[in-house]
Amino acid sequence: MASQHPIEIILARQWASTMSHPIWITDHAGNLLFYNVAAEAVLGVRFDEAGEMPAEQLSELFETTGLDGSPMPSEELPLLRALTNWTPAHGPLRIRGHDRIWRDIEVTAIPLIGEGERRLGALAMFWELEG
Amino acid sequence: MRAKLNGTRGSVGRAGPGTVRYGGDTSSVEVTSNEGATLILDAGSGVVHADVADVKTGRIDVLLTHLHMDHIQGLGFFSPLFEPGVEVHMWGPISTTKSLTARLARYLSPPLFPVRLRDLPSLTVHDLAPGTVQIGPFSVTAEFVVHPGQTFGYRIEADSRTLTYLPDHEPALGSGHIRDDPKWTSGFALAEGSDVLIHDAQYTDDEYEERVGWGHSTLSHALDFAELAGAGRLVTFHHEPNHSDEEIDRHHSEVGERRQSAIRFEAGLAGMHISL
C-alpha cells in the first residue's frame, strides 16, 4: 500500500493550517512534514518552497544556537526532546532561517501519541521573543 | 469473496414506504469467502438479516468500525451470540481509557438491554490496534479514519480480491481537496486499488455545507476519493435517513451526469449482493 500519514498527523496539519501562530509538524523520526503560513515568516521560506524534508537536512536550512549564540546540541532542541522522551518540552533558542536572519524564539513541543500508544510524531508551536 | 449489504442506512433506522429499496436498517455488511468463512462488518440493525444459520466454520467474526449506536444496536439481536456451538469473535478499535468489552457493556447491560455481555459464553472480544490481522482466509487491515471518536476503516483481502469498507468517513475534513495528495488523505492506504469500495455518501453538497465536521461525506467526496484510490467500483453507503429512495436515485443520477466519472458507482441497496 502507498504511504499515507496517520489521520492524527493529517488532522494536525489541517488544524495548524488554520492557526495564526507558527506551528511545525514532524513524523516520529523528526522528518519535517509541514509548517504553517505563520511559521514561514519566522523561518524565512515558504513551505511550498521548502517542502517535506528528512531530519538530517534540516540543519542545512535552519541553523540553531542558544540565545547567547553558543552552540546548542541538537538533542537539547525542544522538538527532539519531545521525540526522544515522548513528553512535552519547552525552551528558548536562536534560529537562522532561509533568509539568513537570526531570530530569538521560544518553542513548546508536544509529542503526538495515537491510540494504541503509537508514537506518530510531534508538533512544535513557537513564537518570536520581543526585544 | 462476496458481500451482502444487510443495512445501508446512516445514523438512525428509517423504515417506511419511502425507504423500501435502499432500506431502513443501519450499517451491517456480511462478507463471505469462497470457502464459506464469514465476517460481519458492523452490527447496526441490519445485522439481523445476516445469513448465519448455516455457518460452515462454526465461527463468525464481527468487525466494528466504531461504537456509535447505529453500528452496534443490532448486537443484542445477533442470533449466533445465543447459539451453542457457534464461536463469535468481536473486534473493534482499541482505546487507552477502556477496554472494548467495557465500552460495549455500556449498551449490552441493564437498563439499556436485559442481557449482560459477560453472560454470552461463546463471545470473545478483541481490542484491535491499527495494522493487519489474519482472520481465517481474510487478511484484515484496520486504520483510523476521519470520523468523530476512534473509528476504523477496514481493508479486507481474500480470494485474490480486495474490499474496502469506510461507512463513516469525512476525508474532506483532513485534506480539503481530496484529489490533491494521497499521503494527506484519510483512508487512502486502505482503499488504494480496491476492487470494491463501500463508502459513506450521506449528504448532498448543499447539506454538507451545514454539517462540516460531522464525520460524513457527500457523493462528490466519495467519487473524488474513489478516483484518487483507483477503486474498481464504488458502492455508496450510510444513506441519510431523511432521503427517500426517489431522492437517492435522483441525486446519484444528477451527480453521475455532472461528473462523468470513469468509476462505476451505484447506491447500496438493502440486501444487495456484491460478487468480487
Give the distance, in angstroms, between the N- and C-terminal Cα atoms of chain A: 50 Å
What's the arrangement of strands in the largest beta sheet of chain B? Answer: 6-5-4-3-2-1-14
Q: Which stretches of chain B of 5+ consecutive residues score pLDDT under 50?
A: none
Major β-sheet annotation of chain A: 6 strands, antiparallel
Radius of gyration of chain A: 14 Å
| Structure class of chain A | alpha+beta
CATH architecture of chain B: 4-Layer Sandwich
In percent, how much strand structure appears in the residues of chain B?
25-35%
Kindly provide the radius of gyration of chain B, computed on alpha-carbon positions and rounded to a whole number of angstroms: 18 Å
Order of helices and strands of chain A: HEEHHHEHEEE
- Helix content class of chain B: 10-25%
Approximate helicity band of chain A = 25-40%
Number of helices of chain B: 6
Relative strand content of chain A: 25-35%
Main interface: chain pair and counts: A-B, 17 and 25 residues
CATH structural class of chain B: Alpha Beta
Stretches of chain A where pLDDT falls below 50 for ≥5 residues? none
Could you explain the architecture of this structure?
Chain A has 131 residues and is α+β, with helices and mostly antiparallel strands. In chain A, a hairpin with a 3-residue loop joins strand 5 and strand 6. Chain A is built from five helices and six strands. Chain A is globular, with a radius of gyration of 14 Å. In chain A, strands 2-1-6-5-4-3 form a six-stranded antiparallel sheet, sandwiched between helices. Chain B has 276 residues and is an alpha/beta fold. Chain B has one domain (2-275): Ribonuclease Z/Hydroxyacylglutathione hydrolase-like (Metallo-beta-lactamase, Chain A, 4-Layer Sandwich). Helices cover 17% and strands 27% of the residues of chain B. Chain B has helices at 100-105, 171-175, 188-191, 205-209, 219-229, 245-259; strands spanning 2-7, 28-32, 38-41, 59-63, 87-93, 123-128, 131-135, 138-144, 152-158, 161-166, 196-200, 233-237, 264-267, 273-275. In chain B, the strands form two sheets. Chain B has a seven-stranded mixed sheet, with no helix packed on it. Chain B has a seven-stranded mixed sheet with strand order 7-8-9-10-11-12-13, covered by helices on one side. In chain B, strand 5, helix 1 (100-105) and strand 6 (123-128) form a beta-alpha-beta unit. Chain B is globular and about 55 Å long. The mean pLDDT of chain B is 95. The chains are: A alpha+beta (131), B alpha/beta (276). At the A-B interface, helix 1 of A face strand 8, helix 2 and helix 3 of B.
